[in-house]
Amino acid sequence: MADSKPMLALLAATALLTSCTRTLTLPDTAEVTPETRDSDPTGETDTSATDTAPVATACVPGEATGFRIPHGRWALATLHAARRYGDLDDSALSLSPAWFLASAWERTGFACADYGEPWLTEDPQWSQTEGCLGVPDDTVWIELCRLYPQYFECGAAPEYVAGDHVEVGVMALAWYTLAAHALLQRHTLDPDDWYAAAADPLAVEKLSALMHFSGPWSPDAETILTSCADAELESCLTGEPLAHVSGVAEKLAVLAEASCYDEPLTEAEVRQYTEELATIWGSEDWEVATEAAVGALTGAGFATDGPAVLDALDEALGARLRCPESELWDWYRLPCP
Where are the domains of the chain? Predict the structure, then answer.
């Protein structure tokens, strides 16, 4: 099955890009001057003869039945995390912005802060300890501090993720999904090969949701790997794990019908975004990165400015999603998949 990895990686990358990014060709618009406005009462100018250029845009779920994204930093963080899976070589692991939003929706109802309707009122479990993604110290965070000690401080999850610290919560979950993916090798299989053969089209999303909810050592993961390759993963689950995994899958279906979030990003949101990320990626030059990100704002909607801001950050920052080869071996005697 090893020969299937390049094609699997190509399919995963294609699915991720299709789920959150599109290319839109927009005409270059001429400046509206008093002369052109006076000659056309509508204030429009004729752009039919101008050159066109491709503009990358992103569609992060904005509103759907029972759902409303809390604010622009949620859109930026989930798109940022989804893009990081593109850092991986020959990996089946690829999760969309919608997966992170569905996970927060199912796990906590966005009750880590007062986000208003339609979300649950603020709950101390999420506002003071685990955050909107539900990042527990004893399962998710402990693996992060073992395998990525340069980013995540042991025992400090509440300090980093509780409340409206969406940036660190989303990135922590993204990095954790890779750690959990690597730990599937404990079951003497290659997780990429298993996903390639799995019958469930949402196998990556569902098994990642299970390991988020139950931890990477959950016996349910072993049951799925040994008994559910040819079936929907829910058929191997019961109780709370089943409720969480099926809930995430149902919410992904809802978010697939959502309108695209396209409110303009503000300079304040971008500055807060980089300030929050600086708490885990402290070795970066954040003054340069922040000014580059702010400089990418055009006043357009998120669909256009979101990717531009992240492109600027990617150029300025060195943080990338990578399998922690030495730590994985030191702690668990496992190679990177």
Answer: 2-22+60-332
